[in-house]
Amino acid sequence: MSASSQVPEKAPRPDFIRVEDFSFHYGEKQAIFGIDMAIPENEITALIGPSGCGKSTLLRNMNRMNDLIDGVRHEGDIRLDGVSLYDPSVEVISLRKRVGMVFQKYNPFAKSIYENVVFSLRVAGRNGKRELDETVERALRDSALWDEVKDRLHDSAFGLSGGQQQRLCIARAIANRPEILLMDEPCAALDPLATLKIEELITTLKNRYTIVIVTHNMEQATRCSDRTAFLYMGKLIEYGKTVQIFENPKQEQTESYITGRFS
Ligand SMILES: Nc1ncnc2c1ncn2[C@@H]1O[C@H](COP(=O)(O)OP(=O)(O)O)[C@@H](O)[C@H]1O
Ligand SMILES: [Mg+2]
After folding, report:
1. What is the residue extent of each domain of the chain?
2. Considering every ligand atom, which ligand is closest to the CA of 69?
3. What architecture is the 12-109+181-258 domain classified under in CATH?
4. CA of 80 relative to ligand 2 center, distance in Å
5. Residues 6+ apart with CB under 8 A from 213
6. Tens-digit pLDDT profile for the chain (263 aa)?
7. Does 54 sit in the ligand 1 pocket, CB within 6 Å?
8. Does the global pTM surpass 0.85?
């Protein structure tokens, strides 16, 4: 038996991402009100709720994307593995390496498939052919795209279908092995078949990544998430195992929303 096989596997951390009494304001407009939630490692957590309830705002704060907007401020904290994202020791560039993001509208760069995947490595000055080649194959395999594109890696990304372009964006996001993958309605611009393919992919990724996904599609939340958080008007109304939220919601507002009876 090798030494490594005797080392017990590290148990997933139950509060890998910890949102603590977190509020967020765009100037005068308060978008998030005192949210507390613990997001477990290697699980898929869905954020659901009506348009404008603060899903994207909360998600984008998890890698400090909202810092880029003028006049924003927050109260409370978000911790990754115990360390505040706002700790002076945290550099935003390294934070974004740990926390990758995929957006609603697939947005590959005007480059080849290959160069899209290795983009973040090149930015970091990593240009060794062997590392780049290996990264391209691994990331494209992990994003269920390799077999479809392996013979045309140097063709433009824009020649791919919408679903393939979104999988390429996922490959680009995981090329540098982040710990967390944030996805903001990643299937909103895709047809049902491409959507199913992405959902399947997301499910296979959770062994390696902690995934937080915003969706307004409740079937999607039930199909691919372990936990669901229901937000309404900037507040966290209910958060729990996805099965419980959909089959036995404790809050009336959650029930109204998931049964489509929302006023
Ligand atoms: N850049 C911004 N400036 C001002 N208000 C914003 C900005 N982005 C979002 N908001 C407001 O914050 C609230 C939450 O928005 P958002 O997080 O995008 O909701 P969701 O993703 O659930 O649809 C909404 O009222 C929205 O109008
Ligand atoms: Mg949104």
Report:
1. 12-109+181-258
2. 1
3. 3-Layer(aba) Sandwich (3.40)
4. 22
5. 44, 45, 46, 47, 182, 183, 186, 202, 220, 221, 224, 225
6. 444 556 667 788 999 999 999 999 999 999 999 999 999 999 999 999 999 999 999 999 999 999 889 999 999 999 999 999 999 999 998 999 999 999 999 999 999 999 999 999 999 999 999 999 999 999 999 999 999 999 999 999 999 999 999 999 999 999 999 999 999 999 999 999 999 999 999 999 998 999 999 998 999 999 999 999 999 999 999 999 999 999 999 999 999 999 987 74
7. yes
8. yes
Residue nearest to atom 14 of ligand 1 (CA): 54
Beta bridge partners of 183: 102, 213
Reduced to 3 states, what is the DSSP secondary structure of residue 61?
A: helix
Measured in Å, residue 228 CA sits from the centre of ligand 1 at 20
Query: Is there an atom of ligand 1 within 6 Å of 150 CB?
Result: no
CB 53 near ligand 1, within 6 Å: yes
Ligand 1 atom with the smallest distance to the CA of 54 is 17
Half-sphere exposure of 145 (CA within 13 A, CB side): 30
Up-side HSE of residue 34: CA atoms within 13 Å toward CB? 1
Is residue 4 in contact with ligand 1, taking CB distance under 6 Å? no
Distance 217 CA to ligand 1 centre (A): 18
